Amino acid sequence: MIYKDKTSPVADRVQDLLQRMTLGEKAGQLVQPFGWQCYEKRPDGTTGMTEAFKRQVASGGVGSLYGTLRADPWTGVTLETGLSPKEGAEAVNAIQAYAMKESRLGIPILFGEECSHGHMAIGATVFPVQLALGSMWNPELYREMCRVVALETRSQGGAATYSPVLDVVRDPRWGRTEETFGEDPFLIATMGVEAVKGLQGDRLDTDDSVLATLKHFAAYGSSEGGRNSAPVHMGLRELHEVDLLPFRKAVEAGALSIMTAYNEIDGVPCTTNRYLLQDVLREQWGFDGFVITDCGALGMLTNGHNTADSGEAAVAQALLAGIDMEMSGEMFEKHISSAIHHGRLQESDLDRAAARILELKFKLGLFDRPFADPEQAERTIGKPEHRELARRIAGESIVMLKNEGGTLPLSKVIGKLAVIGPNADASYNQLGDYTSPQPKGAIVTVLDGIRNALDGGLDRVLYAPGCRIKGDSREGFTHALACAAEADAVVMAIGGSSSRDFGEGTIDLLTGASVVTEHSWSDMECGEGIDRATLNLMGVQLELVQEIQKLGKPLIVVYINGRPIAEPWIVEHADAILEAWYPGQEGGHAIADILFGAVNPSGRLTISIPKHAGQLPVYYYKRRTRGKRYLETDFNAEYPFGYGLSFSEFKYSNLKVEPSVISADGEARVSVDVTNSSARTGSEVVQLYISDLASSITRPEKQLKAFRKISLQPGDTQTVTFRVGREQLEYVSADLTRIVEPGEFTIMAGPHSAEYLTAPLHVREEG
Questions:
Q1: Distance between CA 625 and CA 700 in Å, rounded?
Q2: What does the alpha-carbon distance between residue 646 and residue 603 come to, in Å, rounded to a whole number?
Q3: CA 456 to each of CA 340, 426, 460, 513: distance values in angstroms, whole numbers, following the listed order
Q4: Domain Fibronectin type III-like, which positions (predicted)?
């Protein structure tokens, strides 16, 4: 049997296996049940297969399992019922062994896991969310993180991850903003390329590589009103230029799996959009992997989009459009065979999809080395080096938005420091969505980090939660005000939460301790399916800050949240503001590192922060035809894209473009001098923007085309150079081709999208 011969070419192995398979076995490869429902944890810690899973294997096989090791309130898997790193690897091995033994042809299962900011399994390292990862502006460090995530995931048997998220955010009221890199397609594309390289490595069949899945294809972050899965109103030209750019670049980098988005674009659901999945993805871009739906998306075709009048019609539409696997639904399992029987599909359509999945299983080495090493999993997952990397990444991702009068860094000889707010000691609130349950002590909160920085600081650090994220209770105000009155400065940890109900119950607003009750309580105001109409602080948080500010103490606000917060009062009255997003399990250490000056902040915004939600959209690459202002306010962001402060000061000078006249296929060298004019070593993100001054299509005022993060000693100057050529100057024309038009361009280099030096560049007519 050629398919069992690992020396044979993959294409030959796929065809040999495919011709041996029955219709039901082929259809089984397209099916992906919920993995956590396939096993049962026994009292002795071992696992057994559920009867439902056994029946499914016997009836034709299971191609893939989703989230076998996923643990969270949605799955119902807890610390008590879930699996340790070693147990997880053993369970995956047991499932794999059963499936291969009991299926007629011994085809291995592809285990797909959630890993957007760390493997969503008990014990795995929890890194900052993607919005924070983008704020590092450090693609190389992100790739290093992806290598760790791939190692931790594969060591337990996970072979595919449903990340990175490459959606471009147009409206940050969208609850999944935290899962994205931000609003700029070029930056997202850059990070997406590094994700593919980091996750997939040099070869897929190694112990530290997993299949990267680009999602959500496409325009998922551009929905109507920022509502999850809502319609998208966008022309094809803009779609190609903005939302598809990150996906194209990641495909060019070698991505081999794509997940479709829930939304429709101009009335066509992405799940059945043949133009996207066939014409663009495969024919134009040369994509050679497989396409998977999002969870339950096929069901939306009959109940939501209503483009199909039956299950048979829905699966036929999807398979013919280019879908190869259904994530955790039942439509393919129930209706493919009957759709073929009734002539809606040909068996060759099924063969095409099954072959794509089998090919990736061979490339991942699953046929030849299907099992994980439980001992390796126990040694690898969550080890100290990975936690230290999480701390370093969190430190680079935090953005300092304000530092009036050098309020920060704080001195470690400070007398007493009050740490106040609902996010000061709420471990789950700083982790973001798609996070597993955490054992006590695994998460370093802001309070923990500050106490550790002050060598324990039990007597010098005063703590009060004050209030919750949501709700109107002010019963904690009195204690919070008493702590603040006694302190020399106040750190307010406020913002939002993407924490699902992990059974924490209510909170004692005097001590901050969890009080578990029979009534669930969740402060979740961000995350998947949690979209908002406004961007202000929820509950009575602003009122708490206002009351404490009246005491006249230095006030440092630390935002922990998953989308921009628009609170002009805090912008005006706080002495310092840090935007930490959801900084992960080492977030408390990272925040303390910046508060006390051990780390010089170098994070920069990847999403514009408005003054008011009524300004939306405020993404920086606005068209010149955007209008002037509203009656009540202008169109300018409170904090523009690319913005962020440092304890150091940087000066830009001597911007040069050489030569200043090039052809459409020529190249210019752009250089700018950056000087650290302060007495402290620091890192700066040098950003290059380009403006096309006149074109046949209305263009954005400016677009990011390159960036580089550099470190400078006090007094040092570094000349930073960029290459500007066709790729930086082109745009998508009316006929959807990428062109460079002759004419005048402005080259801009500076610290953010609203502050820069300029120099001209002319692209001459050919001939």
A1: 9
A2: 9
A3: 68, 19, 9, 19
A4: 684-753
According to DSSP, the residues that pair with 111 across neighbouring strands are 65
Please give the structure tokens belonging to residue 180.
């994205």
Residue 279 DSSP one-character state: I
d(CA 11, CA 362): 9
Alpha-carbon distance of 567 to 84, in angstroms, equals 42
* Tens of pLDDT, residues 254-273: 999 999 999 999 999 999 99
What percent of the chain is modeled with pLDDT above 90?
91
Q: Is 716 a catalytic residue?
A: no
- Which is more confidently placed, 410 or 59? 410
In the prediction, which pLDDT does 60 show? 78
Per residue in 722-755, pLDDT (tens digit) is 999 999 999 999 999 999 999 999 999 999 999 9
- CA 305/CA 297 separation, integer angstroms: 10
What's the rounded Cα separation, in Å, for the pair 203 and 547? 57
b or e along 397-428 (b: 16 or more beta carbons within 10 Å of the residue's beta carbon)?
bbbbbbbeeebbbbeeebeebbbbbbbbbbbb
Amino acid at 221: G
Q: Are 422 and 496 in contact (CB under 8 A)?
A: no
pLDDT in tens, 192-224: 999 999 999 999 999 999 999 999 999 999 999
**What is the per-residue pLDDT for 43?**
84
Q: In what order do the strands lie in the sheet with 290-292?
A: 64-66, 110-113, 160-161, 211-217, 257-260, 290-292
